[in-house]
Amino acid sequence: MLQRLTQPFLLVVLVLAACAAQAAAQTPAVTCQAVVTVSNAWVSDGTNNSYSSVNLNIVNSSPQILTVPWSLTLKSPTYGNIRQTFNLEVVSNANGTIVSDALNYWQTLAPNGGGIAVGLIVEVSDGLGMPDVVAVNNQPCTVQSAQLPPPPPPTKSKAESAFSMTTVNGQIIGVDGQPLQLWGINWFGFETGTTFLDGLWAGSDSLTLDFATIVYRLQLLGFNSVRLPFSFSDIYDKPPQSQARNCAQVSSDVVVADTTPPGTTPSRSPPQWSTPPASVPGVCNAYLPEDSTLNRFMWTVDYFASQGFYIILDNQFNLDQTATQDTQKWLNRWLDLMTQLSTKYPEATSRVICDFLNEPDFGNLRWEAQPDAGLPGMEDLYLSVMDLVYPVASNVLFLVEGAGQGNLGKNWGDGTAVDPNVISSRGLSDPNPFFSSLLQKPYLSQIIIGPHVYPPSISMAHEETEGTSLWARYSASFGYLNKQGYCTGSNVLGSPSGDCHLFPDYQDAQPMQDLIPYFLNNGAAADGLHNRLSGVFWWAWNSNSGTPPASLGLVENWSQVDWNKMQYLIALGYTPWWLQPTPTASVIGAPSSPPPSDQYSPSPQSSDASPSPTQQSPAASPSPSEQSPAAASSPAQPPPDSPSPSPSPQAALPLPPPDSPPPPPDSPPPPPPTDYPPPPMESPPPPTAFPPPPPPPPTPVLPPEAQTGAAPAASVLAPPPPPPVTFASNNNNGGSSNGAFSSSIGDVFTYKPSTGGSIESAGGVGPTTTALTTNNGVIVGADGLPVLLRGVTWPGFDTGTMLNNLKGASSVSADFSTQVQRMKSLGFNAVKLPFSFKTLLGTAPTPKYPLKCISTTAAQLQASVLPNGTLLPVTAKVPDLLAQSSNGEGECNTDIPTGTPLQEYQAIVGFLAGNGFYVVLENSFEVDRTAIDNPETWVQSWTRLVSTVTKNAVAAPRIVISPLGNPDTHGLKWQAAGGAPGLANIYMAALDALNPINPKALFFLQGKLPALNTLRAGQTALTRSPGDGFATDANLIRKYNLSDPNAFFKTLLIRPYVNQVVITPAYTAPSVYNGSLAASTGAALWQRLTSSFGYLNKEGYCVNSKSCRSFAVVLASFGSGLASATDESALDDLAAYMQPLCGLPACLAADGAHGPISSWFWNGWTPDLAGSLTSTDGLKVLKGPLDYLIGLGLNPWYLPPSAQKVKPKQATGLPPTVAVNKNFCSSQVTVTSSGVDNTTGLYLGSVMVTATNVGPVAVPTPWVLTIANVYYAGVSQAFGLTQPQYVLGGTLTGTASDYWDVLWPGATNAVSVGFIVLSRSPDALQPDKVLLNGNPCLVNAPAAAPSGGLQTLGTLRSSGVRAVAPAMAAAPAVN
């Protein structure tokens, strides 16, 4: 029996093989081209092997079609094992020859230019892996390299990656966990227009022309760190200039000889050049990235880090005044730079030090703001940028330079004296507020102090320039910080009190003989007030720094080392290769016990010693920094009252004023002679759509007790009236002009022209970067990614002096922190706390805490957040709080202090924020009329509240301000009427006053309900929902006599905080207002919502047909017990409007006029609300509302991170050809992890869907494929699909439109299509759902797929009909 079955099988195989052989013999000759891109794909597989990603675009340039099967051959003697392939079926891999077959029909290559993309990740033994031969059907192709890539990173040491830089007791700790002494050099160029480090145009061989060779020279001379000046305009706005030069390659012996002084007998062998970049013979710098200057800058940082260097990124303030000219742009660019750097080169980032402002004295900055001069204070600048950068790069060090203390010595970057006697006697700018704030920051241990020190010939100082007077000035200015430190009590030099923090000092120095003993803290300079400094950076490597004979460069003519300067550096402690390294330092005050046996034990070599290229550090991503003195032809001019000092060697520089330093020596000298033309002048910026915003208006000075009863004066709430600005009504679809308007609270629609502005705060913590803001109609975080607010309302302070529902015997219901943990476990990340100023700022008695209660067991806590009937995964666990409660056994509410209602409210806000919640402070207008009864008192009350809660540094960036909840109450309109102020006036007064206090806060604004109900038959209007009412269409306003918000929006557009404003309508379920389904479901509902507010996050508010601004929209209040069919139907259609998943015209909610509304606040948490999530006794959560919210993106603890979400009810109607063919789709999903996207830092994944039609009716093209996962953040590419689209909320759609994509019934064929998705989590690539034409597909178990390392391969066609058997090659006719 076995023989009978086997013989026919063998016969079929032999026949098919013979047919294939005959077809191959008849294959016509092919002419082909191969465009090859090779990039490093270093894979951490435990072997430290080097891999490359080889991506090829194979093009058929012959006139004949190339049908499958055809073969592809790649040859390189460096090839080894294959890690991964894409669109290739490998047949053999031996001796550096890889043969693969193209078998799928869609891999057929059309004649005269038909192409296909293929790729593989292959182990390479040397170089980058560029194939020597590419052949199709054994006929060589013309090979074109797309780009020379950067060199591969060197092997990383696990030990070196085990630590991050930090500081301990005034010392820097390096990546090896040992004390670090920085022996540095400045090398400028990235700020002078050359778009790379300067000097690579000098000489004739690689000794001076080749970047990597110069890095080796620096290593040999004993440098272990480099400072890279840069300008943001250079690295972001200038295209990279080619640095490739024809050059003769010198040997390593020549490089060693160049870095050895004549007549020296070395005491050790020179280190070898470990990883010279792969290059083109006879060409220097061919390996540099050419795609953008920013990428080149970061690559430079990475290369330096791979060679063991630490890197200071130095924003050269004298050439780049972005920090003062456009502070927000400066903050954003620092954030973007460090986000990209830490994402692309995380190990390199561990060696980075951020020098945010080079020599702030250049711009006449002081520690305090100077409003009259339009200059921000350095305190605000430093804290703002560090608050912004630390969350994305917590392993970098922050370098602080001083300023404003010229009377203590005319050096740039000096000026951190805090002794009040010194400050008073010399009239210095006071950094004490900065240091006091710094002591409270989480990045305190990442701070180092970086003064600059120059000799009198450069600084023009004539006093305190040598000996004891010089050393006393050093100690008073900065030296004390690594010995005495900065103290919470007295900071009198030599007599400190309180807790003190020590800061490491390093110096950016020029030769001064008396600097040596002070730096080393020996001899007469050991004054007992300072320790040895942690590093020194010479200015500069560049030969063109300064003018001979006063050149500051360490090399002459870019080739010859100046040995006199080198001997000075050796006296400071530098250790060139020919000297023995210095002994290992120890951490001051650190324990002496050895590390545990399972930890890396550092080698005896000290971090102080110069790096040995043979001992590689983790490959960090180099970020070429700041500006180079060599590029600008004339430095900025000083103030006109400069006297004429004594002549200086730098005679060409402008003369300094008496009380400020002269232009710094790292100002650019004339550009070097070169054949390359100077960079073009930057073009002026394009005009913006809206006028520039005014500076923030002055914050009202508020006494603790607010006056009440008196009519408010206009000046209290508004900036000075001149010059007034008049705004016409919005002309959306026509309309008339209303002109300017005012009310009894003053003309809040006037503003002062901008005078440069200030980021000085009006109270609370200093202004830092906005934790949340909006961008193009979406709320985004500091990383630029969307932030989806899943909120719940918790009332209590609106009607009393404590949150509702803190009652019962069990801590499940009675304890505040337990309820917070329950909210967090259910997936909420935001809480709205309504309040009344009458109770919040009153003196009514508050509950006394703590209470006695029954402490909750783990099982009881779990039961309280698991709806009845819900299956619990074995591995699920209720998450812990980030900020743990202080409750003891049998205690509740110990986290709420007994005090005034405001103190308790403040504590509650802080606890919520400390556990990761965003907190909405909402004044409940229903119970508190203060806003219209006494607007002045209302603004003052808000100011007091925001100032109070903002004092908590954790809470400040998580506060959201909702000035008025439900403004429809009490007859309020947008315009002033009947003696009452207009809603527009009230909002502008509050926002103008509160934004300067907390620039980080978002503003939630509710609208004024148009007074409309159902009109005549066949028409609907904007029916009741409190807080709804942002319609600006002039036709609607005129037709229905609506209250007009146009003047408000036009004024808002010119306010500096416009990006902090979010539109927050409310939705009321029919059961709440005893309504019917009329205008509450379907198209009538959707039309009303779009007209009222939905348009604002799509088209936005338009000044004219070309200038529109979109606003983020959050549904601020909606809820229902879902106990009635009426409510269920209405809320299902509301969900369809908020997140229209199918993306088809048939889904009527996707009207194209509004965007998704992915953030919301459910009303509410406690049983006294109509949509309560908790049971009457507060001990359980209700399944109905939770299931509904899961459909809107809520992710409770009992669902896995990428759980199946319940899809909201869709609109009626599907394509006719599918209407009778539901449940027809079966699919198999293959997911491949594809690494990290270089642009966004998001995780890439290939999601391939093979769809089959198991129904009885064909699915014609075009059909739409939808995949969804809440972690999806975008789509990079699509395969076999056109019009790929990303919908906020994690939905991707694409259309299959080719004739071969028809899905024939009965599983006759299968079509493979897919996406390269962008995900926020590497573990959330698998789609939660797959839909075809809006119908759910049955998803089979995913096919096994390799993971890791796949590079971007370009758009690829990879779909088509796969024949099930040869007999099915012909498609059946359409029924």
TrEMBL record:
Q: Which domain of life is it from?
A: Eukaryota
List where Low complexity composition bias occurs.
Answer: 259-271, 598-635, 704-717
Ranges of Pro residues composition bias in the record: 636-703
Region forming the signal peptide? 1-25
Q: Which residue intervals define the domain Glycoside hydrolase family in the entry?
A: 286-488
Q: Name one GO molecular function term.
A: polysaccharide binding
Disordered: annotated segments:
257-277, 588-733
InterPro entries cross-referenced by the UniProt entry: CBM2_carb-bd_dom_sf, GH, Glyco_hydro_5
One GO biological process term is: cellulose catabolic process
Q: Which PROSITE patterns match?
A: PROKAR_LIPOPROTEIN
Protein keywords: Carbohydrate metabolism, Cellulose degradation, Glycosidase, Hydrolase, Polysaccharide degradation, Signal
Protein family per UniProt: Belongs to the glycosyl hydrolase 5 (cellulase A) family.
What name goes with this protein? Answer: Glycoside hydrolase family 5 domain-containing protein
- Which classification does the entry list for the species? Eukaryota, Viridiplantae, Chlorophyta, core chlorophytes, Trebouxiophyceae
